[in-house]
Structure formats: structure tokens, C-alpha cells
């Protein structure tokens, strides 16, 4: 096996671990709050610390990634994230569990930015297609995570989900140690690239809106069907799973389609699909079948956006991919924190506030059309493949 293929395979495994880890806390909120004798409404502190750790992690480790071999970031991220998962599962006090959630977030940040940029460095002529394929494996993990929690709950020991995932992630540190990739064109310590942050503003806006819409829709689709369509819990849960299936299928399709169309065209196409899916659930809010179909369509549309936008933006700064991607992902994480909160307020306990997702998608389409037009006008190729 070639070094590039080995590095690619380990990145795929890292994203399976990310997908599983990113879907463990929500389904275990009730178990965690019972264990630590805290009100259920305060359970959000676990994900808040996780997301806070992710934000710090992608900024810090993205900057460091431009200066060191990626193996250190991959191995360190696996050890940090695995240790955080173990601590959450084994914690006897709330304070220890919260520290574990923060460690999980920091390690998650490292394993988010590093594999993305390793894949970009290994596939400079088709970065968008390669990143979409990488993110397919996140979707696979995201489907596995809730099922792992369900199995652990049937064993009457929810901590098995955390400890089992921890062992998988920690084991990845071994193959990571044999990866040797520099993500930036300028190698060595002290890389200083003149990044025009203002020029990246459209990409900041896109990732803020895209991550916010993805997290918001996937977090509130259960409540939307349960409240507005009077769907039983198993149907509402099915909609959540269908969203992740659609997202994974969308990224798999994009990895093929991006060999034939540009990044800008892909962004406009997928946002249009996303808008169609959200409109379906807003026009037919009481129809359970419409909600299930909407989940697939929105997932299919939103899935390719993150990897495509990330490749589109970071290709402009090959000497500082780590730094640029860290800031971009951090901005996206901020959207994933704020927009779901706004949805809850707009929904007001009546529905999932899906009009917020529609508004975010409409803004995404406007920015995407502007980017496509601007690049064509300036004769700048929009395809980084």
C-alpha cells in the first residue's frame, strides 16, 4: 500500500470515529442527567463544552498544523478525544464528566481539521471531490452512533457507548503514527502566509449558515414531526436517521459529480435541493410522509456543502491550509451553536422552527450565486480539482 493510500485510509477511519463521537451526547442526555442528579434542561452544558472545545481546537490545531507533520496532530487528536470519551463514561462526579466533554471537543477539533487538510494536500487537483468522499465516512459514523447508544441502553449501561468508541479512537493513534504528510506547500516551522481574511468573508458566511442549518435541521426534525405532524416517536426518530442517510448519499454523489462540474455550480445546485426539501416540510407540516421525504432531500442537499466550501476556500492559500481551515471550521461551529438556539425560540414549543433553516438556505443561495458570478467575471477557475 502506498503512503498516500495508507494516509487516506486512516483519515477515513478518523471520520468514522468523529461521526460516532459527535452523536453520543444527545441521545444520552437523560442518562447523564440522571447519573449526576441534575435537571434535564441543563443537559446542554455537555454539548456546549464539547462545541467550545471544538472551536478552540480547530483554531489552535489548524495553526499548528501548518508547522508540523500531520502525524502528530492525528495521533494527538486521537489520544485527546479517546481520553475525553473514557473520562465521560467513567466519571463519578459532574465536574469530571464536564472536563471529559471539553477534552472530547478539543480532540474532535484536531481530528476534524487534520484529516480534511491531509486529504486536500494529497488531492490538489480534485480536492472537493476527495473531501466529499472523506465526509461520507462521517455520515457512516453518525448513523452508527445512535445505534450504539441504543444497544448500550438495552444493556442498561449507557457508558458502554462512550468506552467502546474511546477504544476505537485510541487504537487509531497507532496507524496515525506512521502517516507522514505536510499539509502546507511551505514546509517547516514559522510558516507565515499573508491571508486576506476579508476575501474569505463569503466562505465564512457560507460555513456559518451551512453548519447552523445542518445542526439545526437534524436537531429539530424530531420535534417538528412530533409536534407539528403528531408523529409517534419512532417515526420522528426515523426522520433523524433519514437525514443522515441523505447527507451521506449527497456527499457520495458529490464526490462523483464534482469531477464534472465546478465547485460554484455544486454549491448552487445543492442549496437549491436543500431549499426544496425545507419548503416541503413547511408547506405540508402535518403530513408525516412529507416530513420523512423532506429529511432525505435536505440531508442530500446540505451534505456536500461543507467539504466543497472548505476545499474551495483553502485552495486559495496552499501555504496556510491549516490556519485558514481552522478559522473557517471554527466559524462554522459558531453557526452550529447559534442557529439551533434561534430555531428553538422561533418554534416556541409548537414546531421545529424550520423557517430559520429556510432563511439560512436562502442566504446561502445568494452568497453562492455571488461567488459563482464573481469568479466568472474575474476569470478565476472555480473548480479546484
CATH superfamily of the largest domain: MFS general substrate transporter like domains
Alpha-carbon Rg, integer: 20 Å
What percentage of the residues does DSSP assign to strands (E)?
A: under 5%
Largest sheet: none
Helix-strand category = mainly alpha
Which architecture of the largest domain per CATH?
Up-down Bundle
3D structure, described in words:
The chain has 385 residues and is mostly helical. The chain folds into two domains: 3-176, MFS general substrate transporter like domains (Growth Hormone, Chain: A, Up-down Bundle); 197-377, Up-down Bundle (Growth Hormone, Chain: A), CATH 1.20.1250.20. It is built from 15 helices and no strands. The chain starts with a helix and ends in an 8-residue tail after the last helix. Residues 187-192 and 378-385 have low confidence and may be disordered.
Short description:
This protein is mainly alpha-helical and 385 residues long. The protein has helices spanning 3-21, 29-35, 44-65, 70-90, 94-122, 127-154, 159-171, 173-176, 201-228, 233-257, 263-283, 288-302, 305-314, 321-347, 355-377.
